[in-house]
Amino acid sequence: MPVYAKYCVVGGGAVGSVLAFYLSRGDPGQEIAVFYRRSESVKAIERTGGVLVEFGGGTSLVRVRPLLYTETGVECGYVINAVKAVDVPSTMDLMRAVSRSARSILMVQNGLGSLELAEEAFPDKCVAAGVVYFGAERVRDDYVKHTGGNSVVVGSRRGWCGGLDELAESLRRGGCDVKVVDDIDFYRWLKLGLNSVVNPLTAIARAKNKVVLLEEARPLVEMILGEVVEAARLHGVSLDREKLLRHVLNGARATGENYSSMAQDLMRGRRTEVDYINGFVARTLESAGWNISVNKVITLLIHLIEGWHEQEGHS
User: Which of 5, 77, 165, 167 could form a disulfide with 31 if both were Cys (CB 3.0 to 4.6 A apart)?
Assistant: First the structure.
């Protein structure tokens, strides 16, 4: 018989671990299965008895069932896909296996493209996007720092679905500030604007998020966001340029001491989500006849750094 877990988190990285932390507090005693790519991660969590999450001056042990991506004999009540956007395609077979009877599927990647892939794969399911506004860093396989913020905006482009409301309520009871909206694409583009500035600029500078607030960064910030506004318009989403700028600067200020996920990825020699963030903006503009854009240059720069790290054998 298949193993049943009320909650399944695909990807036990920083974001997935923090969401498991909220679920464990909001619905104590329920099985939370977390899927990992590496057997070393599973063994580390088994030894510890769960995932240690540092939050608010203390550390909590979140008891989870660690499983490999290949362990597909699991039935899940609710599924959260928390891997990076670049890794989503490699999780789709697992998602199909564990989502057979799921009440809802929540995709929480940065950038655009992952939700669309899940919607195509699960035409009859409650598939939703989650826009995450909290900081987290995975220190080791069994230890994650929750570095600030606690809000998530969720919504389905297919209209209301009860499974999403139930999942949101469980997260709320655990201390996560969850807002369910009916215009999730607007919030996805807001977050894309934030990510398109903070992530690559911190990654290129190898600096904390507050580097975005420097006077020297301002021309780049405004050029990037001008292109984001135009790309959003081409997708039918209206963004106010000045409000978006304030949103990005406020976000960088609030998380000034954090390193963005893209900066962390490059420092550790990992592939980034740039193709789903700046690359998505660049491709949208190219489809409208733009020959070159700042977002295209930034995407190429990030790929150059990735290629150099790969050649040099960084890990």
Answer: 5
Phi-psi label, residue 166: left if phi above 0, alpha if psi -120 to 50, beta otherwise? alpha
Query: pLDDT (tens digit, 9 = 90+) per residue, 181-235?
Result: 999 999 999 999 999 999 999 999 999 999 999 999 999 999 999 999 999 999 9
Q: pTM above the 0.90 mark?
A: yes
Alpha-helical segments (H) within 100-183: 114-121, 162-173
| Joined tokens for residue 187 | 């919030």
Alpha helices in the chain (DSSP H): 14-26, 39-48, 92-98, 114-121, 162-173, 184-205, 218-234, 241-254, 261-267, 278-287, 294-312
**Do residues 164 and 126 touch, judged by C-beta distance below 8 A?**
yes
Beta strands 127-140 and 32-36: pairing type? unpaired
Cα(166)–Cα(182) distance, rounded to whole angstroms? 16
Asked whether the beta carbons of 154 and 164 are under 8 A apart, the reply is: yes
Contact criterion met (CB below 8 Å) for 17 and 53: yes
